[in-house]
Amino acid sequence: MKFRPLHDRVLVKRLDEDEKSPGGIIIPDTAKEKPSEGKVVAVGSGTKSEDGKVTALDVKKGDKILFGKWSGTEVTVDGDDLIIMKESDILGIIG
How many domains does one find in the chain? Predict the structure, then answer.
């Protein structure tokens, strides 16, 4: 199934968090927090202004992003756990 977000929405796949802390301590699954980094899987066409012009989004497919802890809505597409969020929920693009 193909999925394309509408308007200013972005489809994101969470990146896996490290299994170890910087000091080498192994972190159990129960103590891990959901990572707030992800990779953009698909983007909408952009926002429409009142005069009907479409403004393209700043992020594009493949960008590595940082987003807020409680951002977006979790969805499952083709068996993959993804997040759909507004572009305004994205804090920035990583390198």
Answer: 1
